[in-house]
Amino acid sequence: MKNHLWDLAHIAHVELFTPKLEASTRFFVDVMGMYISAVKGDSVYLRAYDDYEHHTLKLTAHKHAGMKHFAWRAKSPEALQRRVAALQKSGYGMGWNDGDIGHGPAYEYHSPSGHLTEIYFETEKYKSGASDTSALKNTASKFPARGINVRRIDHLNLFAKDVRAFRDFQLENLGGILTETIVDNLEDLNPKAVWFMVNSKSYDLAVTEDYLGMNDRFHHVTYAVNSREEVLIAADICLENGIFIETGPHKHTIQQTFFLYVYEPGGNRIEIANTTARLIVDPDYETVVWTLEERKKGQAWGLATVPSFHTKGTPMPEELD
Amino acid sequence: MKNHLWDLAHIAHVELFTPKLEASTRFFVDVMGMYISAVKGDSVYLRAYDDYEHHTLKLTAHKHAGMKHFAWRAKSPEALQRRVAALQKSGYGMGWNDGDIGHGPAYEYHSPSGHLTEIYFETEKYKSGASDTSALKNTASKFPARGINVRRIDHLNLFAKDVRAFRDFQLENLGGILTETIVDNLEDLNPKAVWFMVNSKSYDLAVTEDYLGMNDRFHHVTYAVNSREEVLIAADICLENGIFIETGPHKHTIQQTFFLYVYEPGGNRIEIANTTARLIVDPDYETVVWTLEERKKGQAWGLATVPSFHTKGTPMPEELD
Amino acid sequence: MKNHLWDLAHIAHVELFTPKLEASTRFFVDVMGMYISAVKGDSVYLRAYDDYEHHTLKLTAHKHAGMKHFAWRAKSPEALQRRVAALQKSGYGMGWNDGDIGHGPAYEYHSPSGHLTEIYFETEKYKSGASDTSALKNTASKFPARGINVRRIDHLNLFAKDVRAFRDFQLENLGGILTETIVDNLEDLNPKAVWFMVNSKSYDLAVTEDYLGMNDRFHHVTYAVNSREEVLIAADICLENGIFIETGPHKHTIQQTFFLYVYEPGGNRIEIANTTARLIVDPDYETVVWTLEERKKGQAWGLATVPSFHTKGTPMPEELD
Amino acid sequence: MKNHLWDLAHIAHVELFTPKLEASTRFFVDVMGMYISAVKGDSVYLRAYDDYEHHTLKLTAHKHAGMKHFAWRAKSPEALQRRVAALQKSGYGMGWNDGDIGHGPAYEYHSPSGHLTEIYFETEKYKSGASDTSALKNTASKFPARGINVRRIDHLNLFAKDVRAFRDFQLENLGGILTETIVDNLEDLNPKAVWFMVNSKSYDLAVTEDYLGMNDRFHHVTYAVNSREEVLIAADICLENGIFIETGPHKHTIQQTFFLYVYEPGGNRIEIANTTARLIVDPDYETVVWTLEERKKGQAWGLATVPSFHTKGTPMPEELD
């Protein structure tokens, strides 16, 4: 029995680079059904209708796709202080920034995979107005009835060169539980992919080995809808609107997520998903270990994983010069 | 900003009294699709296919329906010790028992409403065997493909004479967050119903004012299915099998639960529900306050709440002599 | 064994009166997700995305709500001639009109309940353009991804003073099968409501006894969505947009339709429904007979039928002077 | 405008050969959720809970898998006589048999593809008893709440050496509409696959070119469930019970069927499907024509068609010696 740290509340937001800011914005508003919270400089801030913070997605114009940074919200001011102390001690800490629209000061660090990450507690809860207040007081804003109607940010998936280093860094300094992992085999237990849970949702962050041996690449960010039926409808909406569907809808063996992967116009992979009623409330949940051999069976119902799912990340090396 | 206690992991199990042990057991096995874990004396222990513990329901023969006790699992041995210390100090603590089939020693207390409750950490994770192992290693046992196929215990609802006393006791000694509440009006703020969250699921326990002014009565226990479609199918299954449907399927305004309430043959109210993608990961979520006036609108889509929902609890006074 | 007539193809369109043409149009476009096909004089023509004809709904400005006329499409030119001959002989026939935007000459009649009806064969199949062509060649136009996204017209429900007279007229002159009926009791077999099937969908037209003893009143028109989940989502969309929900979502005992009834801004009742996989392909299907006594059980899962469902029709008598 | 024949009511039943009669029977009862209607000699008769006839599936022990015969029900005695006259004239007619358990005399023919087919009108409507009567009078028998709970037979798919010959034979002698077709290209219009509609369901029979140039082979029979969600659940049930999933769940481009293909223990391909709200009520529906080039896009959301779907039929040539 190991004592787990529970100082992170949830994945908070992701800042994505896009070479097509306008087209990407239209995708998230018209196809995904999200709302624009703010526009500032070369960035557009967006949220899903039931995201409670100011934004969960920040799109920033750039010459190529990818992720600029992502953020965790801490569970309390004290929890934040504890994590900052650990990060400072870890050697990965960078220092405090002044915050951004929608949240207060954040402590920055680069994870072993080179991803810029921040952690904060002070936040601006979204206050809906005359036009977007929901009829239900327990919903952050009005159901948009437009496009896919994603409800909230769900999780983030990154590529890393050294998954083991990321895993150990994360569990030691940020806490949570490793709910599932892929290892090369049961002798070496060398991790190929890891899934971290910080609350009761079975994962908020996944990290997968970068096929190209690169660091700092982005795999996908996921928004949740209320049902698998809506994931199916999302596939039709993408089909009707010329959005490239990479794979799905289908059910992941790992984590059981019902997934649909598409590419937004800027080139980043976006997942629309539903996790049905799965939650992990067991506080000493034992990590589910999958071997590469077991993964050859494909996804839950036998769908072969498409090759691009393993190789495509943003940015692609040819975009970096 | 108040600091919340997060020492409870989740609602663990409920022991229900039934005057018709055999018929109640058949209902939970054949109609609900649950598995029998053990039979001992006048009790039958059951679990849903993805409940990770030995059981989440214990049926015990008795002259009338009702709840004998319910249990919380603590988040760690230390968390358990902290809660026991608080309970002892509160005056509501009773002492340790030796545990039961499936879990270790538990500390018992009577809440202000008179409900016998226990809290423990040591548990027996369910180990499936040759006939009930799931094809997916991240599922506790095989999908039964029988009846309603409930997945896991979701929450518990009790009646209490003094809801305010229960609320204050719970938050002070057990922790968690009050996510939603009904009050008489915005001047008096006298609580009529309260919903407690201890993890990221928007509630594990609800307590409602007992219309008859009684204590120690049971309102319902809820099992979750994976989708709203399965709640609709559950209604057909109950209809086809002569199970009384009290109300639903419909969507609760409060907590947005998609509900179906039925009476098991022993007389206890059982809910089959799906919460779609709703989670509360905001660590300082502000309680949503509803007034009795607002509640007159009925459920989310306007369904009038059936009178029995307010008056029927188990046991009924005429059964007590 | 009776030989049935199969000369009608399907319910074709409905012309509704509305005292609020603009608001009604916005409802059908923004909330229902329909497309405007044409605007002419005081009328707006609309269709759902998979309706294959030019329109299935014509909204016409008028001082009160109600139905101006509805139309059947015949199965062939010969079938049309046969029905016209029968109608002429019946004494209810009126004569040919020149057609309307979207369809050719139609033969008009007043049914015994006084409803103006027309029957035609020549029609204009909808041709989508650059902006609304579906990615799937077997879909009439692009999935709108707006509001409720209704797919096609499903059926029509009228009020009649003398249901028996309507039933006999319909079966004798128009054909089809009476799939279900409500009668007062099994001795008198006096019909209170009747459901007519003309293809394999279990009904295209329903007629219910007018509680006020009036003729020529409209009860509702129904548009189909692809799943029950979308009916549930439709309820949320109506809730969020201030559309009055009369009753539902729930499952009808009769015909098993999963229903949601709302009032459009002009006052007419509109149903959004899904019939799951139910079809009647049995060519000598025996009418299912329900008594008023049986109907007291309410809808399939026990929901009491709301009183307004029996009394409210358009126009209401107070609107007629 | 061509005049269509509408003398067929629907696909009635399929007789499948199986080398594993007991295992196949268990699959259809336990996994598919069907009921056994009768057992006679080496044959087991089964129906889905809402099939209105005595059976829709007859399993017959044989050394290899495949189809022995299938049946159409005619729309009336007169319709049957008309079709028999046409079949006799066509040269493909064989003569009358005495019927089977559940239906009266049937006229037999071999289609150009060599498949034994029969057509009849007299049938035995299923009468449920004390244990399997549905609570809803408009359902043929009780919802089983076991396994996949298929509702009714939906359609049949055969392999044929000469698809054009089958198509012309079918439309001329049996009637209906060709709703969709795959052709090699738009110049030659040589049919590779054809879909026939005989009622308002977009197809009851599909015929695909046999990749091996054989005749008299079976591709699959399909049973319908009420929703796409149930197709997803069916996939889990097959996974949990060791039933091989060939492909799906996914949406067909052609006909938009939401499909899951599995192999029953005897080796025959079985589809579980939901067609959402799609119906074709247009009596002069224009055939949707797809080219092989267009089919290279895969299924609706881009899933590549698995090779076995084109090559595997029952029996396989190696089984015939």
Automatic annotation (TrEMBL), chains A, B, C, D:
Domain of life: Bacteria
Coiled coil: none
UniProt cross-references to Pfam families, sorted A to Z: Glyoxalase (PF00903)
Keywords: Dioxygenase, Oxidoreductase
Domain VOC, first and last residues per copy: 10-122, 152-275
InterPro entries: Fosfomycin_Res_Enzymes, Glyas_Bleomycin-R_OHBP_Dase, Glyas_Fos-R_dOase_dom, VOC_core
GO terms assigned for molecular function: dioxygenase activity
SUPFAM superfamilies (UniProt xref): Glyoxalase/Bleomycin resistance protein/Dihydroxybiphenyl dioxygenase
Keyword Oxidoreductase (UniProt): yes
PANTHER family, alphabetized: LYASE, PUTATIVE-RELATED-RELATED, SLL5075 PROTEIN
Protein name from the UniProt record: Catechol 2,3-dioxygenase
